[in-house]
Design a protein that fits this description.
8-stranded mixed sheet; globular; 52% helix; alpha/beta; Rossmann fold; N-(1-d-carboxylethyl)-l-norvaline Dehydrogenase, domain 2; single chain; 12% strand
Length: 330
């Protein structure tokens, strides 16, 4: 099968290497001339990694080059997916499978990404499979051990993706709970920002453990309301992804929170940041959806207030810690 990857960023590059290691027919499409030339001419991607890449890794800047795809893997920021999908529907003359590795919601419609992709692609979409779980591109590109989930309501399609990607360092499981897995993958970025804030404010392991546990409660409450399954939030897409994103300096969302915590203010970060930090937009979407449906999400509320209402993180933490006492419950 011909697999074409949209994007030449860190995750696109790492997953392209996994597929090449497995002998797949794959190359990338990107809009960055620096990244594309780096990959093609130097077999590196120095914008993201200090590592040599496979000699047969290839990238193009011509979208028409990927029109022969059987499978298109979308490795673009959520904010870019709409424009990319609109372009793709113009060049494709046949239906394809889409693999989504992005994590978030459409910022305006609040759709989960698989729902959005199916709607925009229409008849050009055979189905969408999400490949998500606790994974940093920086480790995958070094071929360090990683496990993720292929998520699709059609288990046969999840199995197809599982077999395409699985190798001795990259193990793929299957999951048919699309709602729960996509919600968990998006929500954990909000709590990663909160975890980074704690670190920036020089809080310790106790605080992070509490944050991650209560964040898992919030994520689960939110996901169950929308139809997700409890076991998903206890698996790779839930607690697994939450652990890695809330505790690693590889996480852009954690690093964003760290800067905000050090400044005790989000304004400077929001003004100067140029990196994709999906949790910022996700915090707004989850906050709005939770408020609309009366869901109790105190940590999400505070992250939203820090990012969008100018609340000092130190004040937000004091407010969380001084709430009325209660039993631990979902």
């Amino acid at each position: 099968m011909k697999i074409r990857i949209i994007g030449t960023g860190s995750w696109a590059t790492a997953l392209c290497q996994v597929l090449l290691d497995n002998g797949r027919d794959v190359f990338m499409y990107g809009v960055s001339e620096v990244e594309v030339n780096d990959i093609n001419n130097k077999h590196r991607n120095d914008s993201f990694f200090d590592v040599d890449l496979p000699l047969n890794m290839h990238a193009t800047m011509k979208m028409e080059d990927i029109a022969d795809a059987d499978i298109i893997l979308l490795a673009t920021p959520v904010k870019a997916i709409e424009s990319v999908m609109n372009e793709l529907t113009q060049i494709l003359d046949h239906p394809v499978y889409f693999i989504s590795v992005s994590k978030g919601f459409h910022p305006l419609t609040h759709e989960r990404l698989s729902v959005f992709i199916k709607r925009v692609a229409g008849e050009k979409c055979r189905d969408v499979i999400s490949l998500i779980g606790p994974s940093h591109a920086e480790e995958v590109v070094l071929r360090l051990l990683t496990s993720v989930n292929a998520v699709c309501e059609d288990e046969d399609l999840a199995k197809m993706v599982q077999e395409l990607f699985s190798c001795d360092y990259f193990r793929v499981y299957r999951n048919t709970d699309v709602i729960g897995a996509e919600i968990a993958a998006a929500c954990k970025n909000v709590f990663a920002i909160a975890s980074g804030i704690l670190d920036g404010l020089k809080q310790g392991d106790n605080a992070r453990a509490a944050l991650m546990t209560r964040g898992l409660y919030e994520m689960t409450r939110f996901g169950l309301y929308y139809g997700g399954k409890m076991e998903t939030f206890l698996g790779l897409n839930g607690v697994g992804d939450l652990i890695v994103t809330c505790s690693s300096r590889h996480s852009r969302n954690f690093n964003a929170g760290f800067i905000i915590g050090q400044d005790d203010d989000a304004a400077h970060f929001l003004k100067e940041n140029t990196k994709t930090t999906e949790g910022v937009a996700t915090a707004k979407v989850v906050y709005e959806m939770a408020k609309k449906n009366g869901l109790y999400m105190p940590i999400t509320d505070k992250v939203y207030q820090v990012l969008y209402e100018g609340k000092k993180p130190s004040v937000a933490i004091k407010e969380l810690m001084s709430r009325s006492l209660k039993a631990e419950e979902l």
